[in-house]
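Lab notebook, bench 4. Still working through the backlog of constructs that have no structural model yet. Next entry is a single chain of 165 residues. Request: give me the structure tokens for it.
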Amino acid sequence: MPALQGSEKNLMRLLVFSDSHGARSVMEKALTDHPDAGHVFFLGDGLGQMEEVAALFPGPSYHMVAGNCDWGADADSIGVLEIAGRRVFYTHGHIYHVKSGLDELLAAGRAREADIVLYGHTHIAYTGYEDGLYILNPGTARPAGGSYGMVDITPAGVVLNVVKV
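Model written out:
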């Protein structure tokens, strides 16, 4: 990994994946392309593949939740984590009915005093900001027409990106 320069030393990069449904290539390429990622979030529906990828790329910290298609998985459906002074609430999203809107999800994030809310389930990439909450859905980590998310946390603020593959 190249040495970080200047303000890059204060950057914490998060990679965010969801809904790989059996595919690994998007996650493997993203981890190869972003060796500076300190944390990787997997938001469900393909948990087994993310565990395989994590074994191949042991550098970052991995945080995973189960989705509605991760039958029998030994993982929680939500998580909360403090990273670089920001509180991250992450979930697959099905238990908050995100296909019908984000109200339940955002209420759950606020109840947990989150700064950043990560969710999947819809297969539709989304970035937003609402009343103090940064919101990211990375879309689907499938090779054809897929995407993943990046969250950069810096002293100056939070930047959300969706990377199309």
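Notes after review: The first strand starts at residue 12 and ends at 17. The helical segments are 25-33, 47-56, 103-111. Flag for follow-up if needed.
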